[in-house]
Design brief:
It is built from 7 helices and 4 strands, in the order ααββββααααα. It has helices at 5-8, 18-37, 98-110, 119-131, 144-151, 159-193, 198-223; strands spanning 50-54, 57-61, 72-75, 81-84. A hairpin with a 2-residue loop joins strand 1 (50-54) and strand 2. The longest helix has 35 residues, at 159-193.
């Protein structure tokens, strides 16, 4: 069984550099905390709900489904884009399509089964991204060799093998970062599409962003390994 990611993170620092080791452990602890907070997404978050009109104006009905009857994203305001509840029409901001929004909601909900930050957990998160079509090249990859080379550098590693491992880790980190960015947009879109998902999406996206940063750091460590 692979060692926990947080334990393996001690390899980031040289034995004599305790301050860097402590800093990395704090960073990875925040990764764990963010992923655990993603558990707050309700299991029924995929239930649609929509904005509807009534004699008193526009309101959110979590028990109904179909296109929104009122409200839309408009260009303007300090953030450059805002939700206007008293207007209707096409989305002016095109933050994220409804199909992509619900895909990311389902992904974050399924990630509630991941309760740690071991190498297996990182692989599971990446596999889930692949299962939802959020990873390029037809699906996610086996990151086992990345973790093994990071934790137990091979003295017989060829430079070609090292290059392949670094490229794989870098690509995994980039895809995780991309999905984290999409999740951030989804958390904004949730204001109009599914308000209860706003905070869990933001938290889950932050967790994926930190995992992406961790994968990038691993790629950097492996790239400095000696090869033949």
């Amino acid at each position: 069984m692979l060692a926990p990611f947080a334990t393996a993170a001690q390899r980031f620092a040289a034995p004599a550099d305790c301050n860097k080791g402590d800093q990395m452990r704090r960073i990875l602890f925040s990764v764990c905390a963010a992923m655990l907070l993603a558990l707050c997404l309700p299991c029924d978050a995929a239930a649609e709900g929509r904005w509807k009109t009534s004699g008193e104006g526009c309101y959110w009905d979590q028990y109904d489904s179909g296109p929104n009857q009122c409200g839309r994203f408009k260009v303007g305001g300090e953030a450059g884009c805002y939700w206007e509840i008293n207007d209707a029409g096409p989305d002016q901001c095109s933050l994220i399509s409804e199909a992509d929004f619900w895909t990311i909601v389902a992904l974050v909900n399924d990630m509630s089964s991941i309760t740690g930050t071991s190498n297996e957990d990182i692989q599971a998160a990446y596999d889930l991204m692949g299962a939802y079509g959020l990873v390029g090249d037809g699906g996610s990859e086996d990151l086992t060799d990345v973790f093994e080379e990071y934790e137990n550098p091979s003295p017989s590693l060829t430079c070609g093998q090292k290059s392949d491992i670094v490229n794989k880790a870098t690509k995994a980190g980039l895809w995780m970062g991309g999905v984290a960015a999409a999740g951030g947009l989804a958390s904004i879109a949730a204001v109009g599409l599914f308000p209860p998902a706003t905070i869990p999406l933001a938290v889950g996206s932050a967790g994926l962003g930190l995992l992406a940063a961790g994968m990038g750091a691993i790629a950097g460590v492996v790239s400095g390994a000696s090869c033949t």
